[in-house]
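Worked example

This section walks through a single chain of length 310. The input is the sequence exactly as stored; nothing has been trimmed or padded.
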Amino acid sequence: MHTVQRALLVGAGLPGLRYLPAFKRLDGKWCVLEGIVGTAASAELPGVPVFPRLDTALVALRPHVVIVTAPPPASLHLARQAARFGATVLVEPPVMISATGWVPKPSDERIYVALHSHFAPGLAGLFLEPPAIERAEVDLVCHQGAEDFGTWQQFWNHSGGILHQQALAGIALAMRLLPRSTVLKCTGRRWHRREHSPAEDAIDAEVLFTDGRRLAIDARTDAPTDLHRRHELRLVHGTKVTEIAGRNLEAGLARRTTAPSETALRTQMLRAVADVADDRLMHASLFELRDLPKVLEVINRVYADCVVAR
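Given that input, the structure is written out below as tokens.
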């Protein structure tokens, strides 16, 4: 028998609101939302206590699970604060922009990055037994107009570029499946045509690792509408190509027509975090915070080495 875990939602703007359907789908099982830090989501859940500060909520509720949806640079601080209190933490990406100066903390072992698309069909099996890969190809196409950029995205040191904001799930997935290796070199170009924010409009790069494997990234946010959105990963070994498809990888290894919804994947992720809080076996699809710096090293090498095309 499992114990129902008390959950606290921190930063209840649009990212926080996306969790509410998942909590409703859990229907009081595994994980129950018992408090919110912030006000935007409170109208959706009348009767759920609202707190102005995380420390007050932690003392009052003593939650088993904390979901942090605040943007950087606050997100890592809040996640670590909750983890030091003893909670198991799920924190929305990008969490941080650079691994420079990264110092791991003992409580980081209780923090997971909220990449719900990594719960897509078949991916857990790939994480447990990664296939032989010579090349991984990450594709992202989406629409992001000037009206879609929040205040926090107006500063590069807070939000980074589209590889941090939009393509992180696919790049992290590729890095989880590629053998660990050091970047040898990176070539590519990035374009800043619209200048809606410090982030680029498109980036096309190839990363070569010291073991000879390659990671190709083709990402753009200037599609006509978000109906054109596509975030996919191809794993290449000889003539064999494994495709992980979907608007946001959500089809996994299954057919696009049978892809689970975002709510279904978030529900799986919440249940997995609740299991960890209940001292159960960790789900293979959970992405540990301690693995994020390796992904950021690759992303920031791309930005450092790519030529800016105007």
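What to look for: The radius of gyration is 19 Å.
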